[in-house]
Amino acid sequence: MNIEQQAIDDKLATIFKVLSDPHRISILRILHENGHEMTCGEVGEQLNLAKSTVSYHFKALRKAGLTNTRKVGQTKMLSINETTFEQYLPHFFDVS
Amino acid sequence: MNIEQQAIDDKLATIFKVLSDPHRISILRILHENGHEMTCGEVGEQLNLAKSTVSYHFKALRKAGLTNTRKVGQTKMLSINETTFEQYLPHFFDVS
DNA sequence: ATATTAGTTCGATAATTATCGAACTAATTG
DNA sequence: CAATTAGTTCGATAATTATCGAACTAATAT
């Protein structure tokens, strides 16, 4: 295994770690199906978790580069980071 | 989110949990690049881990349906479970 | 200026996990 | 049969993780 491949696999492993929680997959699907930015609150509403827990998951998604965050006043808008999905998880949202 | 999608996402989450360890991704790549069945020992040799640890990872991969196992005498032959990859991880091995 | 709202951070906790060496089973070889 | 080999299982351990409620910050509304 060459060194670049190892770097990719480490990146993949961190992405997969983030995806290893069903709640986080749900968040991504909610975002994807919605088709445009959503506030943290809107997404979190559907998950039935403490808001601190939701915040924890959001941070994990953002840190792994799976979502974009944009602050608008008091709220934060979340969206899918298409670039990361295209590069590392092509066809992720096609699986059904 | 409908109930079938939830079932798929739970399955995906368990697959991703297995893939969240760099060693297990390595195992899969070794198998894929080799192109045909390998013994546990052959794969494990390249990982520099205790054989009990390797066995632990193999079991996780098998349990998630990512590999096939075939016992031949004293040894076990591992191979990629193409069906699972086609269904849940299309283009996984193309990422580079 | 006070109260509300959106989200983050903190401390605690229970559960899961990756790893090892040792002991084991089953198959093969001498 | 005895020794070796391939792989599994077990017990222990250290590290990570998902979750909560409480306290916090920053922005908005009354």
Automatic annotation (TrEMBL), chains A, B:
Keyword Transcription: yes
UniProt-listed Pfam families: HTH_20 (PF12840)
Domain of life: Bacteria
UniProt domain HTH arsR-type: residue ranges: 4-96
Molecular function as annotated in GO: DNA binding; DNA-binding transcription factor activity
Record keywords, A-Z: DNA-binding, Transcription, Transcription regulation
DNA-binding as UniProt keyword: yes
Record-given protein name: HTH arsR-type domain-containing protein
